Amino acid sequence: MSVTMKDSEHINSPQGVDKRDPILSVRDLRVWFELRKWGFSHAGYVRAVDGVSFDLPRSESVAVVGESGCGKSSLMKTILGLNRPTEGDLIFDDMRLTEMGRGDMRRFRSQIGYVQQDPYGALAPFMKIERILEEPMIVNGIKDKQERMRRITKALTDVKMTPIDDFLQKYPHMLSGGQQQRIVIARAMVMEPKLLVADEPVSMLDASVRVEILKLLRALQEERELAVIYITHDLSTVRYFSERIFVMYAGQIIEKSHVDDLIANPRHPYTVALLNATAEPEAKNALSYRDIPPGEPPSLVNPPKGCRFHPRCPHIMKGVCDEEESPEFEPVAGHFVKCWLYSKEHGDGNVVVNP
Amino acid sequence: MADESVLLDIKQLALHFSASQGVVQAVDYVDFRLDHNEAVVIIGESGCGKTSLVKALLRLLPRNVATYEGSIHLKGTDVMKLSDEQFRRQVRWVRMSLVPQAAMNALNPVIRVGDQVAEPAIIHLGLDKEQAMKQAVQMFQHVGVPIDFMTRYPFELSGGMRQRVAIAMALVTVPDLIVLDEPTSALDVLTQANIMNLLKRIKKEMGTSYILITHDIGTSSELADSVAVMYAGQIVEESDAMNFFSEPLHPYSQKLMSSVPRLHGDTEPDFITGQPPSLINPPTGCRYADRCHKRFEKCDEEPPIIEHHDGRRVKCWLYADEGG
Amino acid sequence: MTNFWNNFKNITQYPSAIAGLMIIAFLLFISVYAIVTIPYEEAVRLWRGGDEVWRTYPRNAQPAWVNIFSQTKKSNTIILDSLDENDNVEKTVTQRGENIDITLVYTFEYDADTFPQDLSLFMTARYIEKQPFASMTWITPDGREIRIGDMSIRPAETYRMTQDSRLLRRLGDNPTVQQGLFITPDSDPPRPLAGTYQLIVEVALFEPGATIDDVDAVFVSYGEVYGLAGTDHRRRDLSVALLWGTPIALAFGLLGALGTNVITMIIAAAGVWYGGMIDATIQRITEVNLILPVLPILIMIGAFYSRSIWIILGVIILLSIFGASIKTYRAIFLQVKESSYIEAAQAYGASNFRIILNYMIPRIIPLIVPALVIGIPSFVFLEATLAILGLGDPLLPTWGKVIYDAQVQGALYNGFYYWVLEPAALLMLTGLGFSLLGFALDRIFNPRLRGVQ
After folding, report:
1. Do the Cβ atoms of A211 and B217 come within 8 Å?
2. How many DSSP H helices and E strands does chain B contain?
3. pLDDT of residue A9
4. Cβ within 8 Å, pair A124-C362
5. Chains with ≥3 Cβ pairs under 8 A against B?
6. Chain A closest-CA separation from residue C363 CA (Å)
7. What value of ipTM does the predicted structure carry?
8. Which of A67, C89, C293, C370 is the most exposed place for a label (fewest CB within 10 A)?
9. Given CB atoms, is C453 within the 8 Å cutoff of chain B?
10. Chain B residue whose CA is closest to A263
């Protein structure tokens, strides 16, 4: 009896939804692009995303870190519904991407906000700010002009573009980079999304305003209990903005962990290299060379056999790393790493590869 | 009076452009100096005149120049007094070369990279093709690009490799000074670190001096012997790297330093409110005053460049009582 | 869009654009004036009309304003109609027994230095059986009386004095009738006598009960100059064709430029957006279309199907839709497609249709507007070219058809320069107006062309 009560409560009150429930589950996702020779004959696949799984709880911010070409953009576009997965599935708020019809797809897209890298390019140069902010609502069938204006007002207030009348009638090129990025964020918010995907939202901005935009995004995320996927190549901004980090390399997530743990105790040799390469502004940097693995990320058409990092890895175990792909190990609770060094039989399970 | 121990001594260098709305004071009477085998980093936000400073240094001027004056002493000779032709023959690429912004995309797509690297040696040093190619081979070795890549075209190389090729192009004439305009901005973290390692090694092995233009303070610390901070067309602080990164003087430098997100430590990063002023009608008085957290009455007047007691120079009234 | 209009306002800074706009405004004014004063059917009727419409007009007369520039004053056309309430024609009746006589006296001033081209009398008469009988007398300013002739009048009678050989003989050794009638006696070279002339037509009617209204006559002294634009070989007033040619040229140019550019742009945008097969198909069609010779196809259509200007226009648009500009637009759209604002629109669910129309096309409007304006004259010229090749519209008067007629009639060999120059000047004016405006718009919308001041 009491169980049924609880269930009905759960259904009736959206507040009863557990914050830890995943809003987004990604299951063994593969996004491959077919390469064609002479325009038709098959010539292999670009394995942009190759077996990625994770759960993203409601109201959690997670950072996806990796170099260009590691597949983070393809992953992001698949989550936004812009790419079709080759294999695997994506479950967003109990909707399965693979089972969606047209209408579901539209509803799905409208619930994911998207903040892009280049704020100027992300705004149609021939539209006024008001129109730019209205477009998502017009597209998604909010016909009431007053309701649209109410949401625009709220979104602009949220991103601190006040008084809003100063901006509504302007064109994007009349605003500074920071202001443009706020408009992009406001546009992502007008549909009151449950998930926000931010693709390097500050990398094109000046150093002096980056932190401001990140803080603004953080405040929005906390206030609205948004789930956020923050895509970046810059590890140093992550800890101000995200709870967890996924490190991507050559189409795969190779390490998942809470931010502090990852920065203090990186496990995967690639993560270590990334942290080594991230410069803090200190004069002593000039006196020494940085310890960086040689080489470049592998081709996604013919990724190396075994661990994809093994050709560059300083800790390579011949016969293991170059033979078979590593599963995920969990050396400490909540810290997952895809590296043989942490297996019982090959490594000692607790290697220290400190920066 | 010409001091040959100083590699580069710039005094009162100005470069103004005329635009339809008025005169853009992109470089507004700046001074700085650079010793042999030293690297100076010029830090500033976009639109502060960094790139115009590069143009002024290498005399790569657009057509709408309104003012171009001052002195640039390179090893004791004032290159501002040379004619354009003399400058091209004697200075540009011979003693001072450039790795332009987004250099890796600036390579000619239809010429093999080996030939592109040899080209400046043929034009500026007057070497014949064979000697120039020999020189190019050496440079490829220096910058860590395999020799067999010399016959490839730019699109066949990765971004990092192309950036190395661009550096080899700047190096091939063995200049005293290389100007690097945002050399790592479009590159990945690991590639960035690799390029910075390379630049350090070249500096050590070849005794090259650098002027590094960047907005990325983290990267700048990798190479800097000294630092110049640019704001709204002016240099507001000139300092040695050690002191600058531990304790910047100018309020703008302080804010800039504290806006850098850090991997470790507890400091919350900060940001600067407001916008940099327009270079067309910059405010009289201190140009940073409107955004400054330490503003006081005196800031309505333009501050002089004040020599701090440890030899640093700062354009701020806060330090007026010192040094004197 | 407002951005677009803001840009448009900048036009005032470009004198060439203002000049262009003024020329276009002038052409538009002419168009409106033509359509209002000569309705469409009327224009078609006039232009296709033969002698019944144009009989009172001189043949191949130069425009009247040539007299301003010429030392010898060329003769004007004089039309005197007894039906007009006109002081210059006096109509009187005298009783003759039970019948009446009607006397028509035409009085006019003549002060030209050349003789008239022709002289005609168009008479109408009402009777039951017996034709009225007219006798004509010419009175010169110096008082000489010359008998012209007698004739009985049918219901519609045209008497061309200049072709009356008996009259010519009666006038002595003058080579033409008009010279004989107007000559200053004993002048050499022959020179017309200035002053007041009279033509007296006495008509005797033979049926009792006839009234004064039973006989009327129009006297025409055809001049060597006529009106603003002159006339052609079929006596047609060229101003009709020049006036009506303006709206037709503008409509043709505008529809042609608009039709091809807009449709091409939409097709290019759709091709780029959908990509794959659709894009490839459009590209192949374009490539095939580019090798089709447009002019021969148009000539064939004109010869075998229809020469209607609107059908030809339709075919031209059809053939230019998949023209070279589709490749240019495609290149631009390929760039636009990669813009991240389009990716954002996709992410918030904008439909393909909306992305093409609201996101891609507005982006290149600044490029297309100047191209469109500059493209208008080329369609106007194309119409003229077709008309000159004999493919002009069978009904409508157009500039091209005027040039065609002039060419066929050997206008330049015969010294009828006005016949070719008038339509040519209008064509050039159209080209100039739209080019001035178009190039200025290009500078406004595509500021990279704007030099640094």
Report:
1. no
2. 9, 12
3. 39
4. yes
5. A, C
6. 7
7. 0.86
8. C293
9. yes
10. B263
Side by side, which strands form the sheet with A227-232? A112-115, A195-199, A227-232, A61-65, A244-249, A252-258, A335-337, A329-332
- Looking at chain A, how many residues does it have? 355
Residues of A whose CB is below 8 A from C354 = 139
Arithmetic mean of pLDDT, B7-11 = 92
**Which residues on A lie below 8 Å from B275 (Cβ)?**
176
Helices (H) and strands (E) in chain A, counts: 11, 12
Q: CA C420, CA C400: separation in Å to the nearest integer?
A: 10
Q: pTM of the full predicted structure? A: 0.82
Cα first-last separation, chain A: 56
What's the gap in Å between the CA of A11 and the closest CA on chain C?
28
- A319 interfaces chain C, CB cutoff of 8 Å: no
Cβ separation C453–B18 shorter than 8 A? yes
B280 touches chain C (CB under 8 A): no
d(CA C429, CA C442): 20
Q: What are phi and psi of B261, to 5 degrees?
A: -70, 140
Alpha-carbon distance values, C4 to A176, A339, C10, C14 (Å): 22, 57, 10, 16
Chain A residues within an 8 Å CB radius of C345: 124, 135, 139
Cβ-count burial of A163 within 10 angstroms (0-12 exposed, 13-18 middle, 19+ buried)? exposed
Q: Do C349 and A124 touch (CB under 8 A)?
A: no
Put simply, the answer to whether B201 touches A292 (Cβ < 8 Å) is: no
Q: Give helix B189-206 / helix B129-143 axis angle, nearest 10°.
A: 120
Average pLDDT of the segment spanning B209-232: 91
Of A39-48, A109-118, A231-240, C290-299, least confident by mean pLDDT is A39-48
Cβ pair B9, B222 in contact under 8 A? no
pLDDT digits (tens, 9 = 90+) for B12-53: 999 999 887 789 999 999 998 899 999 999 998 888 888 899
User: Does residue A168 belong to the interface with chain C, where contact is any CB pair within 8 Å?
Assistant: no
- Those residues with Cβ within 8 angstroms of residue B199's Cβ, 6 or more apart along the chain or in another chain: B167, B180, B183, B210, B222, B223
Contact call for residues C192 and C369 (beta carbons, < 8 A):
no
Asked if the Cβ–Cβ distance from B62 to C453 is below 8 Å, we say no
Distance CA A164, CA C347 (A): 25
Q: How sure is the predictor about B322, in pLDDT bands with cuts at 50, 70 and 90?
A: low
For residue A54, what are the CA distances in angstroms to A88, A151, A245?
12, 32, 11
Query: Nearest CA to CA, how far is A238 from chain B (Å)?
Result: 9
Instruction: Tell me which chain C residues have a C-beta less than 8 angstroms from the C-beta of A124.
Output: 341, 345, 359, 362-363
Please give the structure tokens belonging to residue B212.
């590094």
Q: Do C349 and A171 touch (CB under 8 A)?
A: no
Interface of A with C in 104-123 (CB under 8 A): 105-106, 109-110, 112, 114, 116-118, 121-123
Quickly count: other Cβ atoms within 10 Å of residue B290's Cβ. 15
Smallest Cα distance from A292 to chain B, Å: 7
453 residues of chain C, pLDDT tens digit each: 455 666 667 777 888 889 999 999 999 999 999 999 999 888 888 888 877 788 888 888 889 888 888 888 888 888 888 888 777 888 888 888 888 899 999 999 998 888 998 899 999 888 888 889 999 999 999 888 999 989 888 888 889 888 888 888 888 888 888 888 898 888 888 889 999 999 999 999 888 888 888 888 899 999 888 888 888 888 899 999 999 999 999 999 999 999 999 999 999 999 999 988 999 999 999 999 999 998 889 889 988 888 888 899 999 999 989 988 899 899 999 999 999 999 999 998 888 999 999 999 998 888 888 889 999 999 999 989 988 888 888 888 899 999 999 999 888 888 888 999 999 999 999 999 999 999 888 888 776 544 433
Crossing angle for the helix pair C309-321 and C361-386, to the nearest 10 degrees? 130
